[in-house]
Amino acid sequence: MHAKLHRVRVTQANVNYVGSITVDQDLMDKVGILPLEEVDVINLANGKRWSTYAIAGASGSGEICPNGGAALLCQPGDLLIIIAYEYRDRAEILNHGHQAKVLVANEHNHCLELMEQSLINESGKLKFQSYSQS
Fold first, then answer.
1. Which residue of the set 17, 51, 53, 118 is catalytic?
2. How many domains does the chain have?
């Protein structure tokens, strides 16, 4: 994992769009999710999970809109977790660590808390650290 949007609310669901999930550009920027990047989405209201790709919505809009078939897996108001992954060389992580950003959203899909979660190499062992940036 390199980025996670935690507890974002579905603002609309558009079955008539060709796939993806539309996400407020500000939220994507804060955690480093790129447009067209593959993401996993988990619906906390019903446990449904799916993979898709992110597209940027208007900055500051708070928009979270599952599109296409994914629109049938949720409804406005549902809480989602959106996770982006990256492939990394295991040896590099063991030697140099890894950082991921996690944004916890408020009820309007704005940043309530921004955290950095890290794996730090301390004397040959990885240590997990998490700290809030906001």
1. 53
2. 1
Write the DSSP string, 62-111. --EEEBGGGGGG--TT-EEEEEE-----HHHHHHH-EEEEEEEE-TTSSE
C-alpha angle with apex 49: 20 to 57, nearest 5 degrees?
Answer: 30
| 20 labelled catalytic | yes
Q: Hunting for tokens 């208007």 — which residue is that?
A: 58
Task: Provide the CATH number for the domain around residue 125.
Answer: 2.40.40.20
Active site residue 53: yes
Which tens digit of pLDDT belongs to each residue from 36-60?
A: 999 999 999 999 999 999 999 999 9
Domain around 58: 3-132
User: What is each CA distance from 122 to 40, 45, 66, 112, in whole angstroms?
Assistant: 31, 39, 41, 31
Element (H, E) at 30: helix 25-31
Tokens read off for 122: 């301390």
